[in-house]
Design brief:
The complex is a heterodimer of chains A (128) and B (148). Chain A is mainly alpha-helical. Chain A contains three helices and two strands; from the N terminus they run αβαβα. Chain A has a two-stranded antiparallel sheet. The two termini of chain A are 18 Å apart. The longest helix of chain B is centred in the last third of the chain and has 33 residues. The chains are: A mainly alpha (128), B alpha+beta (148).
Chain lengths: 128, 148
């Protein structure tokens, strides 16, 4: 119960959401900067990473998930478009809606974390 | 990973937008200033100023780390205040103390309309960044409630 993977997964997700918030903040901060290109986050499926297959014999071919140490998210710059004549492509409306969405995800994750914590507390108190 | 960093990002944008507002108000205030600065003993009218922005962290280290795994960025910084090289307006006003032999006075190249638009744009950007900062604050307050 105490070292289940739930908290670790939630932590990963919270880290990703924090990074996403930073990216959105930076995009909005640079909304008037010439030639700035908007950045976005790309999440990777962490399910495959967390499901660990174990080799029963050393002569077996290693599973790909064992050596996979790549981060679960990466930052991508969108160089394709240009909204304004100074080469900037930050869409403030889009960034603001992404901000609201990200905030809700973050709060949902915190709530889940709290739910997990309270069940641990419940167990520690012996169900009282 | 800290959320405080994102508050710094929004903070840098607030500073930059405030500078932009300051420069726009200075331009409007000096829209009629015929003695901006002295060039070779002659008075030159006030020249319109403009702010140049750049993403923060354009040094080698930041660019290298960005190329390696992609960083979210560090905000914005105002690099310099430039002069507008547009020519001065000539106004016929023979009684003006700064009029030339033909009776024309050189007026600053400030267009109040342009300045007002710039001012509005700066205000809106400022508001957007305040919203982002408040969002970060809300998220941080939530994070403090973990395990309560």
């Amino acid at each position: 119960m105490l070292n289940s993977s739930t908290i670790r997964h939630l932590e990963h997700a919270l880290n990703g959401r924090t990074l996403n918030h930073k990216i959105i903040a930076n995009n909005i901060a640079n909304a008037d900067t010439p030639n700035y290109k908007a950045k976005s986050i790309q999440f990777k499926d962490s399910l495959n990473q967390s499901i660990k297959a174990t080799r029963t014999d050393d002569s077996h071919i290693p599973f790909s998930s064992e050596s996979d140490n790549t981060p679960l998210y990466r930052v991508k710059t969108n160089n394709q478009t240009s909204y304004s004549h100074n080469g900037n492509n930050v869409d403030v409306d889009k960034e603001m809606s992404k901000l609201a969405e990200n905030q809700l995800y973050y709060q949902a994750l915190i709530q889940r974390m709290n739910g997990k914590m309270s069940s641990i507390k419940m167990v520690l108190k012996g169900g009282r | 990973m800290s959320l405080f960093n994102s508050i710094h990002i929004s903070g840098s944008a607030l500073t930059a937008q405030r500078l932009r507002m300051d420069v726009a108000s200075s331009n409007i205030a000096n829209a009629e200033t015929t003695r901006g600065r002295q060039v070779e003993g002659e008075w030159e009218p006030y020249r319109r100023k403009m702010v140049a922005f750049q993403p923060k962290g354009q040094d080698f280290q930041s660019i290298l780390s960005k190329a390696k795994d992609g960083s979210p960025g560090q905000g914005v910084v105002a690099t310099e205040i430039q002069d507008d090289r547009e020519p001065f307006k000539l106004v016929y006003q023979p009684e003006h103390p700064d009029a030339d032999a033909q009776g024309y006075v050189k007026m600053p190249n400030v267009d109040p309309l342009k300045e007002m638009v710039d001012l509005m744009s700066a205000t809106r950007s400022y508001e957007a960044n305040v919203t982002v900062m408040n969002a970060a604050k809300g998220m941080y307050m939530k994070a403090l409630e973990i395990g309560r």
